[in-house]
Amino acid sequence: MSETVTIQRGRFEASLHATVIWLTRHGVSLMGSRVLSVRGRKSGEMRSVPVNLLPFEGEQYLVAPRGQTQWVRNLRIAGEGRLRVGRREDTFTAVELTDDEKPDLLRAYLKRWKWEVGMFFDGVDAKASDEQLREIAPKHPVFRISVH
């Protein structure tokens, strides 16, 4: 991929994130979107990013399609955060899942949001075998959240 395409893609993603954050903060959730706020592990300041909240078998999960991102690193340290849509803000605690716990969740996540995040999953989709999903599991942190 050329440098120009990479820069344009980065600008597009930044613009998309800003739009999703704005819509979600104003009460428009796009297929489960929320604004995640987590305390920065170095700065101590709250950091915000759009995420897709995955309801699955009576629980709620955050999946990191882009892998070991800053929000993932911050959430590992903080162990808690806030999810917002419109004026509603929920505080939660988080527990990271093991790779063996992820295949069914990754399948559900891809079934719902592959159109948005499929490019980050190395060609794996919701129809993949458990073995294929287990192979990519280390690249995609998943957190079970408990809302207070």
UniProtKB/TrEMBL annotation:
Q: Which organism is it from?
A: Amycolatopsis rhizosphaerae
Q: Mind telling me what this protein is named?
A: Nitroreductase family deazaflavin-dependent oxidoreductase
Q: Which GO terms describe its molecular function?
A: oxidoreductase activity
Domain of life, per lineage: Bacteria
Among the Pfam families in the record, one is: F420H2_quin_red
